[in-house]
Amino acid sequence: MSKTLATAHIFKTGPGTSIQDLGRMDYGKYGIPTSGCMDSKSSQWVNLQLNNPNDAAVLEISQPGLGIRFSAPTMVSIAGAQAQVLQNGKEVGNPSLIPIMAKDQLEIGQFITGARVYLGIKYGFKSQLELGSRSFFKEITPLPYFSKEGKVSFWDEASTLGVLHSKAKWDHRWFEKEELEVYLGPDWRLLDQETKSHLLTASFHISPLTNRMGAQLLETVENKLPELPTNPVFPGTVQLTSGGKIIILGQDAQVTGGYPRIFQLSDLALSILAQKKPGQVVRFSKLVC
Fold first, then answer.
1. What pLDDT was estimated at residue 129?
2. Dihedrals φ, ψ of 191, to 5°?
3. What is the DSSP string of 120-158?
4. Are residues 21 and 142 in the same domain?
5. Residue 207 CA neighbour count, 13 Å, CB half
6. pLDDT band at 264 (very low <50, low <70, confident <90, very high)
7. What are the tens digits of pLDDT across the range 145-190?
């Protein structure tokens, strides 16, 4: 059966809902951030359930309150934060695979644990492709985020539907750990031993200053770091300012920075951080290379 292009209508949403994939590669030299999913572990899991490529575009939902209506049959998968999921007003117990019929409505309600939900669809969402990626980013894509009455296309294919005798269950416990595994950054050597020890043993709290650009931690760390020239930075780079602030860069962060780079988060640590809410605790754990 041939596929035709259908439409998903977003009839309500909280702030911060966007289309994301694995991001834009090789454009850092032009000052363009990578963007892409903050929690790539969850986004790749939903694509695996749907037999999609890893980089198929998904919805990243950062606040409760999404409502989406589908114009044609398809299959969707939901992972990331543990949240209440309703299909046509009825709660879905295991949303890892959900058959969708024309005019079906999905709603994402209260977040129970975690901070971001990922909604994947068979063949991926077909938002506008810009510089090799569908990821929303201000000044590159037409929209930075969805608002009420948003629309996005997908491939209609009724043959993807069928009786689901069993389906995988998403385990939310992996992002409840406090440890963020890190590699030592290029400027780690500039710290004295006391500061190094403190950074690897202390607990830190996520501040409210947290978004796709990055996360700032509440506690400060006194240091005697020198002024440094601007250097390349990446999602997951941990910077320590001369005033003692710790900043962990996110997917939409700038591609260069002048603050010392003390750590680089592992891919898994980036996904764990993406699921942390303000006030939650994290600790840095050095990876042995």
1. 95
2. -85, 150
3. EETT---PPPBTTB----TTTSS-SS--TTEEEEEEE-G
4. yes
5. 12
6. very high
7. 998 889 999 999 776 555 566 788 888 899 999 999 999 999 999 9
End-of-domain residue from the set 172, 198, 223 = 172
Token pair 């997951």 in the structure block, residue: 236
How many structural domains does the chain have?
2
Residues 143 and 206 in one domain: no
Containing structural domain, residue 101? 4-172
Cβ neighbour number for residue 120 with a 10 Å cutoff: 27
Are 106 and 187 found together in one domain?
A: no
Of the candidates 172, 207, 232, which is a domain's last residue?
A: 172
Find where tokens 């947290």 sit: 210
How distant, in Å, are the alpha carbons of 217, 243, 280 from that of 85? 31, 43, 24
Under a CB-based contact definition with an 8 Å cutoff, are residues 101 and 130 in contact? no
Tell whether 11 and 132 lie within a shared domain: yes
Q: Give the HSE-up count for residue 225: Cα atoms under 13 Å, Cβ half-sphere.
A: 27
Are 160 and 193 part of one and the same domain?
no
Distance, in Å, from the CA atom of 103 to the CA atom of 204, rounded to the nearest integer, reads 46
Q: Does one domain contain both 120 and 182? A: no
263 backbone dihedrals φ, ψ, rounded to 5°: -140, 165
